[in-house]
Structure formats: structure tokens, C-alpha cells
Write a structure and sequence with these properties.
This protein is mainly alpha-helical and 156 residues long. The protein has helices at residues 29-42, 47-66, 78-89, 91-101, 120-130; strands spanning 111-116, 147-149. A two-stranded antiparallel ribbon has the order 1-2. Helix 1 (29-42) crosses helix 2. The protein starts with 28 loop residues before the first helix and ends in a 7-residue tail after the last strand.
Length: 156
């Protein structure tokens, strides 16, 4: 059965000049397969959904790393956050990701209990797209106006 889910890039003020990047292309194949397997083990996902969630988790983290120090208050949706957690809980691989893409600085995870209602998830999807990453928009709309992460610092 073919996957008919459309993948769209969120509109950005200035579309990226470079072709849209896919997070799958920056993750080693064995690590990708392992983390897709972890998502399938822990959630009711098939391999297609697991890959979508994981890809958006990586795109979010790589965008956050690219904007370190800017205080943008980035926040993933609930579904994207599942992918983020899969990445960061694989601590050795996550430390290597931070080393490679965040100048060796560890991007901490500082969740908040209360959800904020400030459109930060939608804003984040736009920033991810503006950074040139593929945005699977349906995965960003489950919490379109709220996010649980600590605003305005260099953490997730």
C-alpha cells in the first residue's frame, strides 16, 4: 500500500535557497534503522510513521542547534517531541550529534509541566522550513498553539 500522506514545507518569509534537506540524509543508516525500530517498539507506529516522526525530531533538534544563542523559544509539537525524545534518549548517539552539529555543546532538555499557548509550535515549524529542512506539516499541527519547552533559552 502506497503512502499517500503529503509532505509539505511550512511557508516561511524567505523560502530557503537550497533544496529542501531531509534529516534522514545526515543520520547514519544503522542509527536511523535502530531509532525507527525503537519508535515502532514503543509506539503504535509502522515503519513509515516512525520514520516521519524521527525525521521531524532530527530536523527540530538540528534547527535548535543552528539557532543556539538566539533565544527563539522553539517548541516541537507533541508528535515531533516523540521523535526528539527518541533521539536524545540514545545518549551516546545524541552526544555525537551535539558534537558534530552544535560545536560540541550539549543541547539540554528542559521540559516544562505547563503548556504555553503562544503559537510557538507553528513558529518553530516555519523556522525549521526556513532552515531548509523538510517539514511534514501534519506532524506539527497536533499542538498548533502550544509547546512544553522552556522559552527563550538554549535548551529543548
Amino acid at each position: 500500500m502506497a503512502d499517500t500522506t503529503a509532505t509539505a514545507s511550512a511557508p516561511a518569509a524567505d523560502p530557503p535557497a537550497d533544496p529542501v534537506r531531509c534529516a534522514r540524509d545526515v543520520v547514519p543508516a544503522d542509527l536511523w534503522d535502530k531509532q525507527v525500530g525503537l519508535l515502532m517498539r514503543d509506539y503504535p507506529y509502522d515503519s513509515v510513521m516512525a520514520a516521519r516522526v524521527l525525521g521531524q525530531g532530527y530536523a527540530y533538534l538540528l534547527t535548535a542547534m543552528n539557532h543556539r544563542g538566539e533565544g527563539l523559544g522553539l517548541a516541537p509539537s507533541k508528535l515531533v517531541d516523540i521523535g526528539v525524545h527518541t533521539v536524545i534518549l540514545d545518549t551516546v548517539a545524541y552526544a555525537e550529534l551535539c558534537e558534530k552539529f552544535n560545536d560540541g555543546q550539549f543541547l539540554h532538555h528542559v521540559p516544562k509541566v505547563d503548556m504555553k499557548n503562544d503559537d510557538s509550535v507553528v513558529k518553530t515549524a516555519h523556522i525549521v522550513a526556513a532552515d531548509g529542512w523538510e517539514v511534514d506539516l501534519p506532524l506539527w499541527t497536533d499542538a498548533a498553539d502550544c509547546g512544553p519547552c522552556h522559552p527563550g533559552n538554549d535548551s529543548h
